[in-house]
Structures are given as C-alpha cells and as structure tokens.
Here is the input.
Amino acid sequence: MSMIEFHHVSFVYNKKDPNRYDAINDINFNIEENDFVALVGKTGSGKSTLIQTLNGLLLPSKGYTKVKDFIVTGDKEIIKKLVKEKKYKKTELKNFSKLRKEVGMVFQFPEYQLFSETVLKDVMFGPKNFGFKEKEAEEKAKECLKKVGLDASYFNRSPFELSGGEKRRVAIAGIIASNPSILVLDEPTVGLDPNGRKEILDLVKKIHQEGTTIIIVTHDMETVMNYANKVIVLKDSKYLGMMKPSELFNKDDIETYSLEVPPFYKFKRYLKEYGYKKDISEANDLASLINILSEEK
Here is the structure.
C-alpha cells in the first residue's frame, strides 16, 4: 500500500528571478507503508527540497505530493482541478497542521529544533500543540525520552548543554511524542562519532520495527547498506531509480550515480577483478561472504 506518492513534483527557487534554480524536476515514485527508505544523491541533487514537500514546508511548483489522503501542492492548476471536482476544499490544501502530526521531521542540526529551558518541556511541546492536556503531554514526553535512552536525570536539564548525540535523541523524542506514522530524518548522524552514529541508527531501526515508516536522507552508504530496505537515488534534480541497497551497490555502473561504494562492496569487486571464480553476487553482508569464501572448492 502506497503511503507517499510523488506525482510529477518539481520545485523552483527564486521562480521569478533571473537566478532561478530548479531544485527538483518531474519526480515520480511511491513509498510503501512501513518502508525504511534511504534517499541518496550528491549535494545539490534535491534531497532536502523533496522531503520538505512531505509536510508542506515547501509546496511543489508543479505536480503534487500525496501523503495518505493529504495533498501538498502550490500548482494552481492542480488546486483548481481538485476544488472543482469537490475532492478537497481550498482551505484543506493550505492547512497542514494535521499532516504535520503524521509526518515528523528531524533536521540535520537538532539545535535548530530545541528551544525550551528543559528537555522535558521541549519534548512536551509537540503533544501540547496537537491537543494533549498538560499531564498527558508530560507522561508522553517522559515515555518517549525513555524510549530514546534518556532517563529521568535528563528531564530538567537544558537541552543546549547536551552532546550532539543527546540533542538528536531529544529532537527525535520530541517528534515521536506526537505519534507520527512517518519519520523523516535529514542526515541524522552527521558530526557524530562511530558509536554515536550506531546508537542513533539503532534507535531509528527500533522505531521502524514498531511500525513507523522511515525516510533517511544520507551521504553515508554504510547506513544505506546496513539499515535501509530500499534506496532512492536523485541526481541533478532528477529521480534515477528505487531499488534494494544490494542492487545499487552491485551495479557495474554505480559510478554514474555519483555515490561512494561501501568498503564491503569494493572488496567484492576486488575479488572479482583479481580472478575469484565463485559466485558472490548474493553475498550482501560479511557473514554470508565469509561462508562462501570458507567453502571447500
């Protein structure tokens, strides 16, 4: 079942300016319910612009993004058509408060999302904004903070005194406290050490296993390889394709996608180039590769 659909989505920055910039151009693909999707592409390919159409932070200049029953578009012709067909009221196509409860977004720099004097109050903001009573919001915030690994000793601390990894945990807790069905994370591990990256990604994996659809924007191909079940590639503002990570990294022409190949897949290539004869195409992790290499001839 498609939870998210992009229909001919384009977005232009500075539309009426001579220096206009076509950030995304005619994007078409669907994301299924409970997918764990990595959105990849070199800097400037349109990743961050595209995800901001998911909750109405940006309105497509052409085409539309559909999330469940919500339509996001700034295309006047599409708006006119939907209103004329009585599928939506014009006000519904401009009011995104309910949509933003469904689509939680964690940005690359979590300090931009933290603003309250204590961690607990920061996480309570989302539920209160969506109608929770004070006590309900507080209980929900405590539950979500514990879920992301922050115990009661953090509740009354200032979020601005925390480490980078802890700030990301607070930002994630603040989003999941509103019970979104979709969680979008833009470069969630940037600037973290290896342990911090693993902790955040394992946390996101756990949230996914509990039924949330995950979209991660990342330049880290190890993250794609180890966590995502699908990868979507953008290049030069256009959609190149959706596939399993193993399909992408096993491609002979992967250089055309302008992506860094994970060391594991580089090693597989070296084996083939240096004459290893066994079929290792189905080995997509170290354990399965070791099994093949250790088999008797």
Notes: The chain is about 35% helix and 20% strand. The chain has two domains: 2-261, 262-297.
